[in-house]
Amino acid sequence: MFRRSYSVSHLPGFGFVAILTFLMLYLPILVLVIFSFNAGVSQSIWEGFSLQWYEAAFRNRQVRDVSIRSLWLAATAAGIATMVATLAALGTTRTGRFPGQTMIYALINQPLMVPEVVTGVALLIFVAAIKVQTGYTGMGYLVAAHTAFCIPFAYLPIRARLETMDINLERAAADLYATPLQAFRYITLPLLVPGILAGFMLGFVISLDTVVITEFVKSAGQDTLPTYMLGQLRRTVTPEMNAIATLFLALSLMIVTAFFLITRKRGA
Amino acid sequence: MAEQRESHLWKWLLCTPALLVLVLAASGPLFIVLAYSFLTPGTMGGVRWEFSTEGWFRVFLQRDIFDPDEVRWNQAHLTIFWRSISLSLQTTIICAVLGFPTAWFIATRPPHRRALWLFLITIPFWTNLLIRTFAIQELIRNNGTINTLLMRTGIIDSPIQMMFTDFAVLLGMAYVFMPLMVLPLYAAMDKLDFRLVEAGYDLYASRIKVLWYVILPLVKPGFIAGSILVFIPSIGAYVTPRVLGGGRTMMLGNLIALQFGQGRNWPLGAALAVVMLVIVVTTLVLYLRWANREGGQVRV
Amino acid sequence: MKDQTARDSVEIEITGLSKVFGQGAAAFSALSDIDLTIRTGEFFTLLGPSGCGKTTLLRVIAGFEQPSTGSLRINGREVAGKGPNARPVNTVFQNYALFPHMSVADNIGFGLKMLGKPRAEVAATTADMLRLVKMEEMAERKPAQISGGQQQRVALARALAPRPRVLLLDEPLSALDLKLRKEMQGELKRLQAETGITFIFVTHDQEEALTMSDRVAVMSAGRILQLGSPHEIYHAPRERFVADFIGDTNFMELPVARLEKGGAFVTLPGGSETRAELPEGLTPVIGEKVTVVIRPEQVQMAPPDAAEMTGTVESATFFGTDTHVHLRLSDGQGFILRRQNSARTEEPAPGAVMGLKLSPGALRVLRD
After folding, report:
1. What is the widest separation between alpha-carbon atoms in chain B?
2. Is C125 within 8 Å of C161 (Cβ atoms)?
3. Chain A contact for C115 (CB, 8 A cutoff)
4. To 5 degrees, how large is the angle CA A262–CA A263–CA A266?
5. How far is A186 from chain C, CA to nearest CA, in Å?
6. How confident is the model at residue C352 (pLDDT cuts 50, 70, 90)?
7. How many Cβ pairs closer than 8 A exist between chain A and B?
8. Is C302 helix (H, G, I), strand (E, B) or coil?
9. In this structure, what CATH number is given to the domain that contains residue B76?
10. Which residues share a beta bridge with C302?
11. Mean pLDDT in runs of 10 for chain A (268 residues)?
């Protein structure tokens, strides 16, 4: 007679609830993606496969403009955020406690804690005041706001990477006659690259997703893809929106997957 | 010790660019909000530079339109505050009830599969919140997927009104914040020593008793962390209640935004924003105190 | 002190050196008042338990830490205040610290490259070093693709490649298993003989220190307690800590019966008197108790009529080549005897009374 061994990790019903949760997480997205390929205008009745909504999205000049603006903004903000976060990570890791350390951590993590809507209205007030003073209405405000918001996300993987890096490697380099700059150039930087890449990707995805802050900071004609979508959602939505959302999801998914591959393969 | 001071200076110099951006575009403006909450609203939005506590007054109270001396509770605001807190707590509970079995399910998969399940939880976390909210909207609209299906199969005759209700907001928030509960719970379970569970069974405990007396106490830090991670963005939610709740089921975030839009009362909006910040910071401080007392690791 | 004449030029001279970490109430003195001279070409070992300051001293010599006070001369030049990249000293790290993103050959050539040597010279020296540590086959591998023992060899080659005056080794063998460790001990001795470079070796393993070193400095709590050849350290410990840290030791508290030139007669439990060696400059008071030490292998079993003292067997532990017999002496003090085994020797039974005889000259008085 064979009997199943007593599984200590089994808890009745848990597997069922878990599968239900996964379904709940993915079903709405799946429906959204499926109907982006619908031949009809309905979001609930399947009328055959068609790419017409994708064509419509590509032809839509406004969609093209906001997409390009979103990508440009994400690249710029994530780029700057990654640079300054790398410096900050170099300054704050692998050291004992130093005066002001807690304050630096609090400042870096602050965008994670404060609700976006609070940061949003704060920036709205601040930006309005500067606009009155300087008359400048360019993309600078959005770049600054997104950069600040991306910093904690870019900082995390870089710092994690630095913390797992053996400090003896740089000591060994110094011992082998490398100047501090050479040690950074030949040892620290090459080993930090995966962390920096991961930080940039996280920052990029976060900037792409940021809707509330953008909504409050943007001037006229500075819509990004998310604020454009938010505006459109009030109207009757056609599957063109599904197509845009699907493309957007695909982009995020690619970056996140790449991020996981980088951090997993090269991770400690 | 001059050598030490010099190296501190270096650390600060390296942090300076990041801190500059953060102070200018994130932390600094928060103080301006505080200042604006004590000014007088301008007629076309904005403020006049006159000191006033009217903004703060109006957070919870209101004056009679005809008799300014008659002060009453601001029922509309109280309702919104209550809805924000109540919906956030309900969201946290739903996420905990569904998230615990889910995290347990992932933690008990064979190690090589675990990464994939974890990845599946993380993906929604990194995909656009607006898009996920939009997906929910498409499901529960009056002519959305669910209502259409139900009507086509003849279960109902007229669509069930789900959009613009508390239910819609609750569903949306539980949906978008679920990964924030599962991830810290999983982290706690991953560290769980399963020999302790075995010991529980060995000492004649039933599954329920092992769950109650062994597993739950051990993963409590994950529970608390997850609850904080869900509760804080729920209190601060703006997009989800705006899209799914509309004007009738506003939450605090929407009330704040309203003052900077049609409301044209920036000082009131600023005061409300400060209140929201205080709720969030208080929650965080209570949590950090608790975590320090428990001696557990604090993951932010 | 063997062939001192051939090796009497000074490589490293440390005087009055101290190192304090932190400040105020939290200040911790990691090294105090170190005076030390290391000769050119010697295999010098810093031995002590963890936290004794041996690694800090090594790091001060390497330049990773700056001394709080005192002077440090390498080959006659003062280097206190200079960074590690400005000292003719290279380190083999405990965990090897091989650069994971560079090949074995690039790791070995790194120091020469940083010194700005021409590419051809870097390549030639790298090839020499690969041959020296027998790693020619592995030149293009990454550190993660070679074994622990091989990583050890690469770390050695990398540190030797720039031909430093002094090689510092920070517990380099501690990560290896026993068999590989023995092999590498021989390898290190060979490399030192072939290169003639001064080695400063840090370890907490007393056996490793005794087998490999020309001289050993035993450290505790930031100080050097005793410095000498392995033979001196083992057979003539001056302090209780040194005697206790190195090998098994019997300590006894015994009264002084009378003094003699360079020695003292102490009264053993049971009443017989025997001579104990005195450390230089110590004159005990007659009648008062002193601490004496004797190694367990310097005590023999003897028939009761020829014994100097007796003990009752409490337990015996069989180790194969020898047996450790735990005894209780007649005055109640514990005592260990190490007896060589042969196929015919019987295990002593608990409760049996055993006569003991001490090897002449093996008993030493300690400075307390």
Report:
1. 82
2. yes
3. yes
4. 75
5. 9
6. confident
7. 271
8. strand
9. 1.10.3720.10
10. C355
11. 61 87 92 91 84 92 94 97 96 81 90 93 94 91 96 93 90 92 94 93 92 93 93 83 92 88 62
CA–CA dist C135, C121 (Å, integer): 19
Helices A14-35 and A239-266 sit at what angle, rounded to 10 degrees? 130
User: How far from A10 is each of B108, B184, C105, CA to CA, in Å?
Assistant: 8, 20, 52
Contact list in A for residue B207 (CB cut-off 8 A) is 10-12
Strands C89-92 and C166-170: parallel
H-helix segments, B108-215:
111-126, 129-140, 145-152, 166-190, 194-202, 207-210
Coil vs helix vs strand at C216: strand
By the CB < 8 Å criterion, does B5 face chain A?
A: no
CA distance B263 to B269: 9
C157-166: burial string, b at 16+ Cβ within 10 Å, e else: bbbbbbebbb
B128/B126 Cα distance (integer angstroms):
7
Across the interface, of A11, A128, A233, the residue whose CB is closest to B207 is A11
pLDDT at A173: 94
Identify the band that residue B300 occupies on the pLDDT scale cut at 50, 70 and 90. Answer: very low
Task: Tell me whether residue B11 is in a domain.
Answer: no
CB crowding C221-242: b at 16 or more within 10 Å, else e = ebebbbbbbbeebbbbbbbbbb
Residues C250 and C295 sit within 8 Å (Cβ to Cβ)? yes
Residue C181 belongs to domain spanning: 5-243
pLDDT per position as a tens digit, C78-108: 988 888 888 999 999 988 999 999 999 999 9
pLDDT for C194 = 87
Contacts of A176 in chain C (CB under 8 A): 85, 90, 110-111, 114, 158-159, 162
Q: What is the mean pLDDT of residues B212-227?
A: 88
CB atoms within 10 A of CB A61: 8
- Its domain, for residue B142, covers 31-294
Q: Look at residues B185, B172, B179 and name the one whose alpha carbon lies nearest to residue B239.
A: B172
Give the strand order in the sheet containing C10-21. C28-39, C10-21, C69-74, C77-78
B206–A contact, CB cutoff 8 A: no
3-state helix, strand, coil in chain C (%, to 5): 30, 35, 35
According to DSSP, the residues that pair with B172 across neighbouring strands are none
Taking an 8 Å cut-off on Cβ atoms, the answer to whether A173 and C99 are in contact is yes
CATH H-level, domain A61-266: superfamily: MetI-like (1.10.3720.10)
Instruction: Show me where the domains of chain A are located.
Output: 12-50, 61-266
Strands of chain B, DSSP E: 40-41, 47-48, 61-63, 71-73
Residue C167: strand pairing partners:
C90, C199
Name residues 83-142 of chain B within 8 A of A (Cβ): 98-99, 101-102, 104-108, 115, 119-124, 126-132, 134-139, 141
CA gyration radius for chain B? 24
Within 8 A by CB and 6+ apart from C51, the residues are none
Determine contact, residues B255/B241, Cβ cutoff 8 Å: no
Structural contact between residues C329 and C271, judged by C-beta atoms closer than 8 angstroms: no
ipTM summary value: 0.90
**Final residue of a structural domain among C185, C211, C243:** C243
What the block records as the tokens of A134 is 């300087």
Q: Which of A5, A11, A86 to mutate to test the interface with B (most CBs of B within 10 A)?
A: A11
Which residues of chain A does B105 touch, with a Cβ-Cβ cutoff of 8 Å? 14-15, 17-19
pLDDT, tens digit, for every residue of A56-91? 999 999 999 999 999 999 999 999 999 999 999 999
Q: Are residues C235 and C318 in the same domain?
A: no
- Would you say residue B24 lies in a domain? no
Same domain, C21 and C132: yes
Same domain, C159 and C53: yes
